[in-house]
Write a structure and sequence with these properties.
This protein is of the alpha/beta class. Helix content is 36%, strand content 17%. Strand 11 and strand 12 (395-396) form a beta hairpin.
């Protein structure tokens, strides 16, 4: 990672080294799993390191889009260009069921405690690796915990476990790192409320303001893959892989409705949703094939289309009333608790994938529980214009590429905390 975009930084860092390490952590059922993670290290002297950032990555549908496997990926490049060339070491778990760990399904979003615990396991393993290789010499480096999208909820759960579980806190404090701040970015903190209503609502051109959505077409196209990932994980871990208990079988088997059949196949092969996430396709291909399979799907008296994107036609009609499903959603919520650690919630005002109402719900819920040192920073999408294709008009930034800009806001928070140190 020695070329663009890591040039012309104030510390004159010319190279960022990415190391993949393997370590053990606990899975959903408390089983031991060997997993991977990435450690990003700037080529500066150990005494110049400002601190360590534990980063929980966003949703990747492909198992190999993760930090230690995707050095040319947009998220890895942003981590290197913004955080690492500013003098920070970044520690980024690939997660259970991703990266090296392919033998189980990724416990996606509904099992945040498992993923937060994985962050602790990665942090401990990274501490040993960094010390053994002479990358750190201090025994009290500032630690910042952040994450984007899927990973933001895990970052906030990491903070909650640190403050509510003595063993978790003891394990973090036993490392060479001193936890300073939590900075979750655009996360799904209210699974049972905001995200449930988001998925079970028709969000179109005239109703997108109901959830502060920037682009309702993006919402409609990505909803199928997000709900497929969520419910495949749920069925795998909670329903003994009985996928018919959670899905409309026609959707689960990825049968095209009105499109040509090849639009729902992978290299000519018909896969179901579980197989789609297990194969080696890229994120875009997986998301678009699933979107094609959802289009015009009929079920439960409704049809799934761009302007009518309530997910009801894609699921088993009994799922919404399933007590276990509702309790799993509630157990994943992380907005109604008391925190005393410095915490900054960063989010886009209009977000087509993870509604900004999640951040507002967390801000309100945590304040209602008498949290202290809690602030929020909302970024107006209208202030950031993007142009991804030269001959297309510019458009307001949205969730898919928002990390490039929101990381800058997080970096400013980290640097301010460093400057305030005695």
């Amino acid at each position: 990672m020695s070329q663009q975009p890591i040039i012309n930084n104030p510390l004159q860092i010319s190279r960022v080294d990415l190391y993949r390490i393997l370590y053990t952590t606990k899975g959903v059922n408390n089983e031991s799993e060997t997993v991977s993670g990435g450690i990003f290290v700037p080529n500066i002297a150990p005494n110049k390191i400002k601190g360590v950032i534990l980063f929980f990555h966003p949703t990747f549908f492909s198992k190999t889009s993760t930090p230690s496997y995707s050095p040319k990926g947009a998220v890895d490049q942003a981590l290197a260009a913004l955080f690492v060339t500013s003098g920070y070491i970044v520690v980024a778990p690939d997660y259970v069921g991703m990266g090296y760990n392919k033998k189980v399904f990724h416990p996606y979003i509904l099992y945040p405690q498992t993923n937060a615990q994985d962050g602790l396991s990665m942090l401990k393993a990274a501490n040993s690796f960094l010390a053994a290789n002479g990358f750190i010499t201090s025994h009290s480096l500032p630690l910042f915990v952040t994450g984007y999208s899927e990973g933001a909820a895990y970052a906030l759960w990491f903070s909650r476990l640190y403050q509510e579980q003595a063993d978790f806190k003891r394990a973090v404090d036993s490392t060479s790192f001193n936890l300073k701040m939590i900075v979750p970015i655009s996360g799904a903190y209210s699974l049972s409320g905001v995200m449930y209503n988001f998925l079970f609502s028709d969000i179109g051109v005239f109703t997108k303001s109901d959830f502060a959505v920037q682009n309702s077409i993006m919402t409609a196209r990505l909803k199928p893959a997000l709900v497929a990932y969520t419910l495949t994980s749920y069925a795998y871990y909670t329903k003994n892989s009985n996928f018919n208990q959670v899905f409309n079988p026609d959707f689960f088997n990825m049968n095209c409705s009105l499109q040509y059949s090849y639009q729902c196949k992978f290299a000519g092969q018909q896969l179901n949703l579980f197989q789609a996430f297990e194969n080696e396709s890229d994120d875009y291909t997986i998301a678009m094939k699933i979107s094609n399979a959802a289009a015009h799907k009929l079920g439960n008296g409704k049809v799934f289309m761009d302007q009518w994107n309530d997910i009801t036609p894609l699921i088993n009609p009994n799922l919404p009333s399933d007590y276990k499903f509702r309790s799993t959603l509630l157990n994943g919520d992380v907005y109604a608790w008391k925190s005393t650690l410095p915490t900054v919630l960063i989010y886009l005002r209009s977000d087509s994938v993870v509604s900004s109402y999640n951040s507002l719900k967390a801000l309100q819920g945590m304040h209602a529980n008498h949290s202290t040192h809690l602030t929020a920073i909302a970024i107006d999408n209208n202030l950031i214009q993007e142009n991804l294709i030269d001959f297309f008009p510019s458009f307001n930034v949205d969730h898919i590429t928002g990390f490039n800009y929101l990381f800058l806001v997080a970096l400013d928070q980290f640097n301010q905390a460093i400057r305030k140190q005695p």
